[in-house]
Amino acid sequence: MISNYELPHEDDQGTVVEVPNYEKEFNNAKMFLQMASTVTGDNLYDHLTEVLNKILAERPENVIDFFEEYSRKVKERRFRPLTDHLEDIYVPPGRYDLSNKLMPVLRPLPPGEPSTVDPEDLEMADMSKNNMMELNYYLEQCGIGLPRIEMCYIMLSIRKLIHTEPISSIRFWGKIFGTLKNYIVLETELKEEEYMKRNETYNQEAENPPETTTEEVVMKGEGGLAEALNELAKVQELPGEGGQSKYPRPLPPEPVILYEEPPEPPPEPSGVGVNKKVYYVCREIGQPWIQLPDLKPKHVRASRQIYKSFTGNLEEPILTYPEFTGNEMEYLRAQIARISAGTQISPLGYYTFGGEGAGEGEEEEEDEEAAGGETKTEYRVNPKYEAPPLKDLLDGSMSFWVHHTQYILPQGRTTWWNPNPMPELGEGMGEELGEGEEPEAPRGGPEPETGPPLLTPLSEDAAVEAVPAWSVRSSSNIIDDFAIVVVRSNLWPGAYCFSTQGKLFQNVYLGYGHKYMEHNFSPLPLPPIQQEYPIGPEIMEVTDPTGAEEEQWRIDHLPKPKPMPPAEEAPHEEAEEEEEEDEDE
């Protein structure tokens, strides 16, 4: 605070001396210090401010001895060479777009967002089994995998998906590459209540088939009109102009199609067989997950006969021969089911048919019951599982690896459907049979389709010519204690399974969704043309005759002249006798 200030006064010479304006002088001094350099663009005011802030932040001893050093460091930090033409913050366009796609996933879920999953069921969809960073680490050890950013996004999107869909378990299935875009696939299991709702809807559609279309009504109408015209032509013969009937002549009968298409097997219910799992796909990072529909047997049969690359558009029509009745969404679902059925494997003994708390005796009883009954379709994790040693997992015979997914029959289902079931026996027929007698099976019926049971060793898989079905290797031949076993499918290139020497193993698919073919793909030939009419001379094609041949044919087919009758001798003799009698008279 200034206390000894002076008022304006006159000096000895009589000149008025004005008191200086300190505020004005302060502003002028500050403006002088803020004058920017014409070389670097910096000013002394900002430089002193940064130097003082740095000194106050560090508070060194004997700062007066290091003041110039602090000033030099501040200048070095701001130094920029003339060759640096980049902006202060430059973000590439690709990274900028990727960050915009990842931001919605990185935000926490709103607390008031409604969830279709109960809090108790959220524990079933445990995210501890979907540590994508750990999975990516093991995949990198195997020499495969996806970018870390993509794996991180999958993990975050899974966390968001289980809060919006009724999912009980979820797993990263793999990635299928397409020509335009790719498909990231998740394998899930829904809640039992959701499966029941889906099956109820399916049963209602089966009980109430779709109504007859307009085209069918028109076709039936044309047939009825033709029958009415035929009846009128037969009963009423009203002559018109020119002696012709007013009604058209009776039409020939329509040809009857004797061929009957075989009955189409019904699809398996949701949560059973090929529809036990529900799959979600996403075409790229940032897009929503789309649930694939349930699989139909006809789509499986058609996918086995075609070979088409994916485009990345779920609505893309499949134009192939044989015809595939559906778009790329159904084709993708069929290929995922085929890949899963052929490449989902696990170490021997990890799964068992016995219950979790079952003892050895109970497991043996269940195995005996299964041997005399139907094939088992349910299994559980073996609580007494002990991982096989590394040398057994690396055995080339593949006897220590088994399939844990049901085989898809040629019919397109995991369980065989009888198109011609045996009729039920009546009460009278049941009484005629004795107690120990059984009804004979109908002869000539279709043979049931069978496949390998669950938990069948990989050693029984068929090889493709000289190529084995599976290849196995170790991630490291030096450090055996921490090596990872990698199993690769040769029938479905892109299917891998890795296993640590503990209880951790994982199946993943990274490929184009096509099965290996030993030869180039050749589509099925067209069926032979059916004979519509019996072969006869009236419909056979012959060479037209020439003019000379026609003339010769005409001459050969001219009517022959009638032969002259021979002369009769008896009448001539009688005439001579009559002349002689006249002369005598």
What would you say this structure looks like, in words?
The protein is of the alpha+beta class. The protein has a domain at 23-78. It contains 16 helices and 14 strands. The chain has helices at residues 22-33, 44-58, 63-78, 93-106, 119-122, 132-142, 148-161, 192-207, 214-235, 297-303, 328-343, 360-372, 390-393, 427-432, 547-556, 569-584, and strands at 9-10, 16-17, 167-176, 183-190, 278-282, 290-291, 345-347, 351-352, 380-381, 401-403, 470-474, 485-489, 495-499, 505-511. An 8-stranded mixed beta sheet has the order 6-5-4-3-14-13-12-11, with helices on both faces. A two-stranded antiparallel ribbon has the order 1-2. Strand 13 (495-499) and strand 14 form a beta hairpin. It is elongated. Residues 352-377, 424-456, 544-585 are annotated as: Disordered.
Concise account of the structure shown:
The protein is of the alpha+beta class. Helix content is 34%, strand content 10%.
The count of DSSP E runs of length 2 or more, i.e. the number of strands, is 14
Shape: elongated
Rg, Cα atoms, Å = 47 Å
Structural class: alpha+beta
Succession of helices and strands:
EEHHHHHHHEEHHEEHHEEHEHEHEEEEHH
How many helices? The count is: 16
Mean pLDDT: 79
In what range is the share of β-strand residues? 5-15%
Quaternary state of the chains: single chain
Q: Describe the largest sheet.
A: 8 strands, mixed
User: Which strand order do you get reading across the main beta sheet?
Assistant: 6-5-4-3-14-13-12-11
Note the gap between the termini: 206 Å
- Helix content, binned percent: 25-40%
**Unreliable segments of 5+ consecutive residues:** 212-222, 356-373, 425-433
Biased composition (Acidic residues): 359-371, 429-439, 574-585
Keywords: Cell projection, Cilium, Cytoplasm, Cytoskeleton
Region (Disordered): 352-377, 424-456, 544-585
Pfam family, one: Radial_spoke
